[in-house]
Amino acid sequence: MRRARFLKVVLMAATAATVFSASAISAPLQHGAGVAAAVPSLTEKVWCRYGQCNDNGGGAAVGGLVGGLIGGVIAAGAANAAAQQEAAAAQQHAASCAQRYRSYDAASNTFQAKDGRRYPCQ
């Protein structure tokens, strides 16, 4: 019981530290008046951590969503076509066996031979 309580306290402290440090990390950099005056007016400083600064990841998220949807539709169509081909092949097989053997049983895919045994239809 003590261990569980200790674990809760540690997790709460870690969560609080993460939440409060995130605001300090994302805060804009503060420049003094002397630093701003030293930089030429034609220069623009851009502070980016990851990738392009003006993208914000929105385009990539939408592209990923659209790509995932299109991929899902293609995969579903391929699976449906494969299932239809498999069903058609099974029907052809059953029709062929029924035509060859009078005692053919489609449920077990077997026929009865003259010796009384049942054999699978090939």
TrEMBL record:
**Which Pfam families does this entry report, sorted A to Z?**
BA14K (PF07886)
Could you list this entry's UniProt keywords, alphabetically sorted.
Cell membrane, Lectin, Membrane, Signal
Q: Which domain of life is it from?
A: Bacteria
Subcellular location(s): the record lists: Membrane
| Keyword Cell division appears in the UniProt entry | no
Q: Identify the main location.
A: membrane
Membrane association type: Single-pass membrane protein
Q: Give a GO cellular-component term.
A: membrane
Q: Which GO terms describe its molecular function?
A: carbohydrate binding
Q: How far does the signal peptide extend, from start to end residue? A: 1-24
Record function comment: Has immunoglobulin-binding and hemagglutination properties, and can bind to mannose. Essential for virulence. May be involved in LPS biosynthesis or polysaccharide transport.
Would you identify the family this protein belongs to, as annotated?
Belongs to the BA14k family.
Protein's name in the database: Lectin-like protein BA14k
Organism of this sequence: Bradyrhizobium pachyrhizi
The organism's taxonomy opens as: Bacteria, Pseudomonadati, Pseudomonadota, Alphaproteobacteria, Hyphomicrobiales
